[in-house]
Amino acid sequence: MNKITPEDEAAVEATKAPLMAHLIELRQRLIWSLLAFVLCFLVCFYFSRPIYAFLTEPLANVLKSDPGQHMIATGLTETFFTYVKVAMFAGLCLAFPFIAAQVWIYVAPGLYRHERRAFLPFLAATPFLFLLGAGFVFYIMLPNAIRFFAAFQTPGTPGTLGIQLQTKVSEYLDFVMTLIFAFGLCFQLPVILSLLAKVGIISAEQLRSARRYAIVGLSAVAAVLTPPDIVSMLSLAIPLVILYEISIYCVVLIQRSRTAT
Question: What does the pLDDT look like over 101-112, one tens digit per residue?
């Protein structure tokens, strides 16, 4: 375990301040974070059309064989509020590094030096794993899911009505955002398990012994979060199992470093 030195105690002691001072600083960090989000939102709203066009690329690639395909809006304000959602989603992603930095600046002075060194790798890994999950769903899982659902279109014949896919702009955005957030959060599994190991709640032996139960639980999570088809479920379940194995390796490294110190 890392021992707290007198220098560490003095550094933390120097950051102590009255409660009102901490509340004032917290308000300042929140204001700066809100301003950053608003600024990023305005920038993203200006580019909301190309951003939404980028998000619809998987759908367009699947339906490119029919040049007459298009999306629909059934409400007068639907397209406008869809662009607002796009701007909020993209603005939050764009402002996240600044917001995370504000949180770190507020919290870090109250941590010991070894605690700051311990948490920094997790802070850096969180956005990386979220982007990895978002990229996985956008470039691998989403095209397969769209291809699966689009296959249920049926051409019309004399005496029967055909079924043609006409995607609503708002529903498509909600579908994509839900999958991106779900995959991005699920890909945080190594960070969560490593943090639990860091504070001594779990061990590598416990994770190994619970592997079978974890696989069942992760498969259930994948079934709930993904569209109701086996391809989409496996697209999330398999990476989660791999991330679980990576988490075990990370916990082993944490335990070795703890033993060495």
Answer: 888 888 777 766
